[in-house]
Amino acid sequence: MKRKYLRMVRRTYRYLRHPRIRKIKWLSPFTKAIFNKRYWKPCRATVANGLSIGLFCAMLPIPMQMLVAALGCLRGRGNVPVALAACWVTNPVTQIPIWVLQEKFGWWLHESVGVPNIPFLSKLEFSKDIPTFEIFGNTIIDASTVSGNAGNFILGFLAAGITLSLLAYPLVWGISMFLPNRGKALDVWDSSI
């Protein structure tokens, strides 16, 4: 597993350092920073930062989350491959259910916990009539009207992103305690692998 990860990282790193990509002028400020080998080595500190940044970016309802995560790793000194992989928590299959859960989480935070919403956004409500959706004769969604609040949705995705990004640190540090080297940085760029 470790060897496959290291091979994949080295291939990606070499591809991104190709002269044709390095000649693009507007990419040069980013490529100098992103090619620091520290951002590609798997150690518990950089993996925890990368996972935290990636999970936060995954909860944002924006396109190109992976680009935002890669740029965030430059600032937060996180592992770039881990951040990009963490962005795939929200993929085309899981995106809509996660948005619904974020809106419900924001509603729960506003109603039960008492976290205030942004006043002008809490007045924006949306509703959509959904027809019955069946797969192989099994009803997945009954015909109904789905409604939501923009203030609750924004509160929900920000709170979910912050919560998941904070949970990444104890998760990575806890798992690293079971690793042979306790997740410390090793020289992964030797040519023997």
TrEMBL record:
Domain DUF2062: 29-174
Segments traversing the membrane: 153-175
Source taxon at top rank: Bacteria
Key words of the record: Membrane, Transmembrane, Transmembrane helix
Pfam families listed in its UniProt record: DUF2062
Protein name, as recorded: DUF2062 domain-containing protein
Organism lineage string: Bacteria, Pseudomonadati, Verrucomicrobiota, Verrucomicrobiia, Verrucomicrobiales
